Amino acid sequence: MFNMGKIKQLNKLFTRPHNLPHNELYFEGLWRTLPKLTGFHFSVFVIYSKKGVTEIYRNLKESSERFCDILVKKIKKNRNFFSRFSRQYLIATREIKRAAKKLSATNYNFENKEAVLKDINTFSKNYLFANTGMAIVYWLSKKADQDEHFSLNLPKIIKISSTLRKKSEELYALGNQFFQLILDYISRKEKVGIELIENLRLNELKNYFKKSKLVPISKLKERNKGYIIYNNKFFILGNKSLYEFLAERNCRTIKEKISMDYKELRGQSGFKGKVKGKVRVLMHIRKISEFRKGEILIIAMTNTSFLPAMKKAKAIITDEGGLLCHAAIASRELNIPCIIGTKIATKVLKDGDLVEVDAHKGIVKKIR
């Protein structure tokens, strides 16, 4: 029996092609480590994944207001808190980058199971702290962008947060990349499709390197059809939709009203320019080989894994992001027109659509 009290409103924060081990570690960082460090706890936190595409849901107002209020009180009460946190955060960030680079090396020996297991445990420990740190610096700098008074109240800390936020922009991607390299190895070794192996849970991944035993393929197939991590519990969706599952728990998502007849999309200019071309919607890194030179990349949000496609693109259009996001920064470096934050580009555009991208004005027009 579910409690039929006040309905909890949830916002979709982002969509990413994340594997299950990373999703579990990401969840644990924000559900367990964040409260220990700051005293703040989310009332509802949802990770939904289907066929390798992950969506994150939380209450945005709770994150931006209550979290920041609790954090500021803690910082003012203990002035050493933020400087100590900053040092630990930079160390954890450095270790994450080192670990991802180590596994990417061509001579890394995945057959040394004891060493791999040790690397997983060390990485997980650092990622739990860094993931918590990403939330802290993101929301502090985000709040400062929205509220000038808030920024003036803690100028030094806000400046440090903004710097740390820029430095950590790629940590989510590195977290997923670390586990993806291990999952790719298991997929090759066991001759099981990567789209299924990506649904190994973190404890099952560790157990594989302890006992060389893989969970039944039937379990992986079930998870690939859809799973949810809801307030630290894991659920297989089965025939239910995400919305039915949430409704049973008195939650609902705040959805954009989407018309498939959209002729024009608006976002923010990441890098200026004006081009015409056919679009290619890329929702997962596995599809990157399908991207052709001169196409317009339509994506929820980019990271370094998508650079091969970005370098071929005539323009980049994202659902998410602001001026500090990866797509905006990379497009300026690549000199490619970019429009960020359209919210619905991946939903209303389809492969082969001909569009005009006016990144001076942040407008995408569908020609046919």
Describe the structure.
- The chain is globular.
- It folds into two domains: 8-248, no CATH class; 264-366, Glucose Oxidase, domain 1 (3-Layer(bba) Sandwich).
- It has 14 helices and 14 strands.
- The protein has helices spanning 20-38, 60-77, 80-104, 113-146, 148-153, 155-167, 171-190, 194-197, 202-211, 217-225, 242-248, 307-312, 326-334, 345-348, and strands at 8-16, 45-50, 53-58, 227-230, 233-236, 251-253, 264-266, 268-271, 274-281, 296-299, 315-318, 338-340, 354-358, 363-366.
- The strands form two sheets. An eight-stranded mixed sheet has the order 7-14-13-9-10-11-12-8. Strands 5-4-2-3-1-6 form a six-stranded mixed sheet, with helices on both faces.
- Helix 2 crosses helix 4 and helix 3 packs across helix 4.
- The mean pLDDT is 89.
- The protein starts with 7 loop residues before the first strand and ends with a strand.
- It has 368 residues and is α/β, with parallel strands linked by helices.
List the defining traits of the structure above.
alpha/beta, Glucose Oxidase, domain 1, 14 helices, 2 domains, 18% strand, 6-stranded mixed sheet, 368 residues
The radius of gyration is 21 Å
Spans of at least 5 consecutive residues whose pLDDT stays below 50 are none
Name the shape in a single word: globular
Strand order of the largest sheet: 7-14-13-9-10-11-12-8
Number of helices: 14
Number of discrete domains: 2
Instruction: Return the average pLDDT rounded to an integer.
Output: 89
The number of strands is: 14
| Helix/strand/pairing category | alpha/beta
Indicate the percent of residues in helices.
40-55%
N-end to C-end Cα span: 50 Å
Question: How large a portion of the residues is in β-strands, by DSSP E?
Answer: 15-25%
Element order: H for helix, E for strand:
EHEEHHHHHHHHHEEHEEEEEHEHEHEE
Largest sheet: 8 strands, mixed
